[in-house]
Amino acid sequence: MINFSLKDKVAVITGGAGIICSTIGREMAEMGVKVALLDMAEDKAKEIAEEINAAGGEAIGVKVNVLEKASIQEACDIVMKRFGRVDILINGAGGNKPAATTSSELSFFDLPEDALQWVLNLNLLGSVYPSQVFGRIMVSQDSGSIVNISSMAAYTPLTNTIAYSAAKAAISNFTQWLATHMNQNYSKKIRVNAIAPGFLLTQQNYYLLCKEDGSPTERGQKVLNRTPMGRYGEPVELVGGIVYLCSDAASFVNGIVLPIDGGFLAYSGV
Fold first, then answer.
1. Under a CB-based contact definition with an 8 Å cutoff, are residues 79 and 12 in contact?
2. Inter-axis angle of helices 126-141 and 162-185, to 10 degrees?
3. Which residues does the annotation mark as catalytic?
4. 86 lies in which domain range?
5. Is residue 204 within 8 Å of residue 96, measured between CB atoms?
6. Cα–Cα distance measured from residue 228 to residue 255, given in angstroms and rounded to the nearest whole number
7. What is the largest CA-CA distance in the chain?
8. Contact 175/150 with Cβ under 8 angstroms?
9. Predicted confidence band at 229 (pLDDT cuts at 50, 70, 90)?
10. Angle formed at CA 33 by CA 83 and CA 233, multiple of 5 degrees
């Protein structure tokens, strides 16, 4: 019997206070998953965890800096003390910023070093470091599932977003590398996959896709024209793919990047 159930599993979600990852946390908690929301915004993560608990789920909010392994280890210790194991790691921390994006006001030649480094580090190392810390726990358990967050930008780089596109391409590569490395060196029962969301409106990309009045920018209209379903995705629409990848239904699925994009990747534009 195919089993999609994640009941009583323990899931660690980085970026857990954000709109997308808090939605993932809430939905997984409704399925009976014990959720640890890790984020720099500790108060917000705890607030969301309290809402989950009030609704009958089980969750904790924990402060973490995904670019500092000592901080990740502290968070891991808290999770292990509370739940005793880690079955799922969702590397949801990531994002972009205007200072790392070319525009009519900011040329490629003038992009500041610190902005480029911030985006590259957050999106790539912000997944590598948690995978090191929580992956060690999975090795000791001889089981676990890691899900990274790639992007449409990993397949073909998006104009203007140089650092974000490069980092997401690296995430897809890292996903394949880690899936192979875990199986060949540590455990055949640890799987590493990724999802590649299509276009969702977030704080990071709103300024690129929408005008102040909410109507599409030229870039936003291009996105909608290239998406056969003709709309942006909703955060909750990512959850089904993640649940599948983390469940026993995907027990022989390893090292893939699953597009959840409304058909964007399938459409040539013609």
1. yes
2. 20
3. 164
4. 10-202+234-263
5. yes
6. 27
7. 57
8. yes
9. very high
10. 135
Q: What whole-number distance in Å separates Cα of residue 140 and Cα of residue 135?
A: 9
CB atoms within 10 A of CB 4: 13
Query: Phi/psi of residue 94, each to 5°?
Result: 170, -175
CB 214 within 8 A of CB 62: no
Quote the number of domains for the chain.
1
In a domain, 23, yes or no: yes
Residue 85: other Cβ atoms inside 10 A: 15
Contact assessment for residue 21 and residue 29, using Cβ atoms and an 8 Å cutoff: no
Task: Please state, in angstroms and rounded to a whole number, the distance separating the CA atoms of residues 57 and 265.
Answer: 36
CATH code, domain carrying 176: 3.40.50.720
Residue 100 lies in a domain: yes
Could you list the beta-strand ranges (E) of the chain: 10-14, 34-39, 58-63, 88-91, 144-149, 190-197, 257-260
Q: What is the pLDDT of residues 63-121, one digit of tens each?
A: 999 999 999 999 999 999 999 999 999 999 999 999 999 999 999 999 999 999 999 99
At 186, is the secondary structure helix, strand, or coil?
coil
Say if 225 falls within a structural domain.
Answer: no
Q: How far apart are CA 190 and CA 132, in angstroms?
A: 13
Could you tell me how many helices (H) and strands (E) the chain has, helices first?
A: 9, 7
Q: Is residue 1 part of a domain?
A: no
Q: If you search the block for the tokens 């239904």, which residue do you land on?
A: 249
What is the C-alpha separation between 232 and 222, in angstroms, rounded? 12
